[in-house]
Design brief:
single chain; alpha/beta; 3 domains; 5-stranded mixed β-sheet; globular
Amino acid sequence: MRALLLSLALAAAAFADDLLEKRYPELDAEDVADAKAIAALEDHVNGWFDEEVSEKRAAHLKALEAATVPFKVIEAIVRHGRRYEKPEETIVGNLTLPPKYDPARPTPVLVGLNGLADGWEREASIRGYITLYPWKVEAWQDPKTTDIVWEQLWNLSRRVNIDFDRLYCTGCSVGGHATWIAGIAGSDEWAAMLPVSGSPGRILVSMSEVYLANMHDLPCRATVGAKDNDIEEMAKKGQGIAKRFGIPAQLDVVDDREHESFDDRAEMLLAWSSELKRARYPAKLDYWGGADLGHRHYWVEVTEEKLETKELKVEAATHVVTRHIPVTPFHVTATLKGQEVSVYAKDAEEVRVGLSDGMLDMERDVTVRINGKVAWKGVPARTVKTLLESSARRQDRLRTFSWEHEFDLR
């Protein structure tokens, strides 16, 4: 009997170790060999994120800073250390889980702006996607819709294992226009955009075509009917602008079809996008923003601006939502080459740069140039505090930053 119990215990331990290795692909087997130590670190990381009392947060941080493990272990736990149980219901908040939802595996999400047609809902479920209908969205074409969606996903990720690198967005008609806007305003948060019977043409009238440049690393595949009159015309206009900016956009104009949801194409479009993941740390950035159009783009954030703005009126079902957009947006370009970071910013007064081991070698000298001049040089000092605080501020535990610095451009 003792031999049997010992054998079962060893088998259970080996199974637990195997699960840890699968959950932490960045780590070696020896990094997760002490399952109890990993569990304790997970408790402190999750406690820090979940705790609202500053003193208790500080206690979790102190324990993590005192841990005698490589920094990469803490970073991996920030990314993957949430433990999940399977909910009793298939609908959690405004998320609908697929039949084979596995709480041990990060699961992709299809977001339906202005809802999902039956065909899209069915195909997403078959493919194993979670689907989300966003709440509290006053107007779908609101540039801040992505912020609303992202906050809901962040809160729901405490209960459901969401893969933040595989978030896909679609919508039909006004939802199709909204999908383009979400891509422009939150380009660093999505894996792919699938607008249906909508186009960027409507928003370019009120905003500016330069904002399409924000989607330089965001694949987009739009579908419109050839008989959809002005939508088809505006979609072609938008596709021409996208091509000029070199963004990865594709337009499917379907013969003899009108203004519709294209349920029969959902399987093909989801298959096309399913292998796509969001870019975490692109080496080249081209970002236009300001005011209600946002300030953060991948690993650069404008923290201070001084822009003249104008009102953008967005029609809701019963009223008008007013947003403020720049008369002339700030423009930030940035490159990452080897151990050198270069940032050029126009009409921005302060920028924050974040660095991670996923971008360069954090144990060697790094040079940061701002508007052509060396603004910082040295070995970045990675800290657990920065790792946690930047993730909480961005509401993102997958795109991590262990070093950040603000640069004054005035």
